[in-house]
Amino acid sequence: MSAALAVTAGDRIDATRHSARRRAEVARAAALAGAFALAGHGLIHLMGVALFWRLGQAGELRYADALPAAGSPGGIAVGGLWLLAATLFLAAAVLLLGHSARWLPVAAAAAVVSVPAVLSMAAAAGAGLVADAAVLVAVILAWWFRRADSTRAPVSRVPGEAWRIRQAWLDLAVRPAPSDVFAAELVAELPEPAQRWLIHAIPAGTPLWRTADVTMSGEIKLGAWRRFSARQIVAPDAGYVWAATAWVAGLPVRGFDRFSSGTGEMRWRMLGLFPVVTARGPDVSRSAAGRLVSEIVISPTAFRAATWTSGRTKDHVVGTWLLGGEQESVELEIGESGQVTSALISRWGNPDGQPFGRYPFGCTVHSERDFHGVRIPATISAGWWWGTDRQAQGEFFHARITAVVLR
Questions:
Q1: Are strands 326-334 and 316-323 parallel, antiparallel or unpaired?
Q2: Is residue 81 part of a domain?
Q3: Which 8-state DSSP code applies to residue 277?
Q4: Single pTM value for the model
Q5: Each residue of 135-153: pLDDT tens digit?
Q6: 178 and 312 share a domain?
Q7: How many domains is the chain partitioned into structurally?
């Protein structure tokens, strides 16, 4: 019986992964087709600019058909309207290629601007209005599907930023349901700070979930402080994928950091197209493994993946994992009521251009919140040189956790 149940659970997991992969592939193909259609419609509008600014007669468009007259003050103004529509359509195409939801309002605005422009050209009005109507219908349908998709369990939705590594995301997100639940007796042999934290964070009877799907936003220091939004899937015993979009000079930089199957990687692209950061290899993997152990603070129900020992004071406890053949540890500071106040690790990296080695890295928890009954940090700041006189220099991350799904 137990073997049959295990096979059934495995089949369901495989089916869920296949369904999610299929949705991601369809979404990718639709985005490419839509982006090319928007770009093409935008480029066609440049023909109107050339005509009304009397720069040339493209295709079947003739100066005699222009109203107001091509080259007149009114014609110059209408040409500007054609140019604005072209710019908006091209911007919507780029945003769609970058999997940014902002393409929806930009494309809608482009269609609205385009309507009076094409009405000024009788010869093009019919086809132009049909194309603009098609864009508006596509925007409405995309918005509706996006809203419907948001009601699905997050496991079925791989973020666009992580589409290239969707299998890694799904491997972490789709795991067998936990069979055990939390009880104080499970932590009775742990150091007292660990007991204090876990009993505070996890109500009795809570399933011992091993994976957390986290939604967050905040600011990240990329030269200057830049706003970001992100989703992260994290399994403290296996890995994480942090998929995000940050905004630099008004342009989206999209990508991911990951640690999965024992290896790490960073891949970031401006507009989803132009390389900003691409990194992998042993040093990246060791650094990513160090980051993973600090993620236990947002997935406390996975505490059994670590070995817990006493820390340097009565309020500190150390968790140790074996990752990639190497031990990685995090020291948590626990407040009097059981809340995590900080985490500190000796993380592999090269902060500020230092030679690769182990350097202090950590985070401070400023507030916590209940997510499905489990108390998890809600606002944090993090960076290198944590706990030293260089902490302010190394701080680069502020996050507000807005949603957590545990499974």
A1: antiparallel
A2: yes
A3: E
A4: 0.72
A5: 999 989 888 877 665 555 4
A6: yes
A7: 2
